[in-house]
Design brief:
Length: 157
Amino acid sequence: MKDRKYLEQSDAVMERIKKGAFLTVQAEGSVNTMTIGWATIGYIWQKPVFMIAVRDSRHTFTLLEKTDNFSVSIPAGDEHNTTITFCGTKSGREYDKFRQCNLQQKKATYIESPIIDIAGIHYECRIIYKSAMNSAFLDDSLEKLYPKKDYHTLYFG
């Protein structure tokens, strides 16, 4: 795997994330991956950051709260669309997504959480800030995205 500058392919990454990417977290001996479709890459606090949004109801949220890192694996093509769908609709509380989808984990270089062993771009992130969304500050036009009031926590890594 080749190390790259974090913004080197950011336009392509942001386009691909709209189709789904794998967020993978390992904590206390448990590992889970889930599909994300919302994220951003930027520069804040004099650091490159990858920001993810995870609803508090997700199993991955429970793991994120017990660790300080996560990985994001963005598939190079569409051959993982079925797996992206499965990992976005099934909970790691009830399914071993790695076994069900025949996904292989690969040891990350800089963090404890593994990456998904697929062709694509992988980000290894150490959490530097997190914040639970406050619905009082949410623009009215976005409320339709939260019919169950299950807001996200934002993780910057």
